[in-house]
Amino acid sequence: MAPKYLIRLAALAATLLAAGACIYPYRVDITSGGEYPLVIDGDLLIGSSTTLSFSHVLPFDQSEKEETPVLAKGYIEGEDGIRVDGRDPYYRAASDKLDFDTSALPENQRYRIHIETLNPEDGSSTVFESDWLTPAPAPAIDALTYSQNKEFNELWIGLSMHCHGSHYFRWSFTEEWEYHSDISTDLTYTPRVWDEQAGELVGGYGRLSPTLYYCWNKYSSPQINIFSTANQTEDRFEELSFHTIPLDDKRLQVLYRITVRLQALSENAYNYWNNIQQNSEGQGSIFAPTPSEMASNVHCISDPSIPVMGYLNAAVPAEAVMYYDNTLERFYQPHLPFERIDTTIRAGDYTVAESLFRQKFLPYAEVYNAPTPEPSDYTWTPDICIDCRRQGGTKNRPDSWPNNHQ
Fold first, then answer.
1. Do residues 78 and 132 make contact, with C-beta atoms less than 8 angstroms apart?
2. For the chain, what is the largest distance between any 2 Cα atoms, rounded to a whole number of angstroms?
3. What pLDDT, in 10s, does the model give residues 227-250?
């Protein structure tokens, strides 16, 4: 069953609020001691990994270069006494980002988070602690589906889910896709340089393996995408079209994968992020509280006058994966090809070859004008037609990718 036309999460009295992960600038009250509000971003995710990041809200006249980095260390504490220490992703003693292995934590108890920030100038520390957090149960993602909408020339991706009693949610998704360049060739060219050890010029034409034909790219949605089902009568959604892709988009050229993560929010967490979203997009009422007036559930216990921004939530996330394979569906509609600028030059003319290389051309075809084992000419074209990396991707194939293209 195809996702219903023009049904969005916002259209079912479940207002979908899509906000960027950044907290937009606004006026904040700075304490007399000159402390800028600490911003904590992240959620405690039971059965998964947890990442918290730390920064400061800065006044408008202070550039990013003047900001003192936030150095933090911390741990998660459970009511049963369990403790999970945070680890910096780069294995430093303290960082502006901490990872916690919360994959084995039980969901039937409360947790709180302890953070200590360090001042690199004088070695002093400031201690923060969250309220006790009760993990929200995981919603059930029943299915991710896709359909071709010819009227809008789009691929529509639909979500079916059960709410399991919760009414407030945050969702995010990660897209990964495989695509290819216009020309497949194993030819390559390296500008010639003098090799002192060999006593000769090295470089020139050669072979490349793997080729630059297949690439992969990735995009993660903003982290603060929230919606409410508080005014909805049913405890489920059926095939809601929450994401679309134009049919001429390179994401659909070969193989596309979307991973959707959905987690329940507490009502207070939803209200916090809803308020920030409305104020940052200019949708809030003049009587609505500003973000600095929305109380965080993280507090500075070493100096209560130090403000904190951000609202931590504990949840058991649900995750689902969907693939679109264009070799089976053939929905992808490529743009009309543009007229390529091809140039054929003599095989031994390295002066012209290196001039073309500097102009971002690459060779793609050998020309044989006589029954000899070596080509007499090479045909060159702009490298964007050959090198798939020039379209934003890399040669790094994602983990567990279904095919084995190189």
1. no
2. 86
3. 888 888 877 888 888 899 999 999
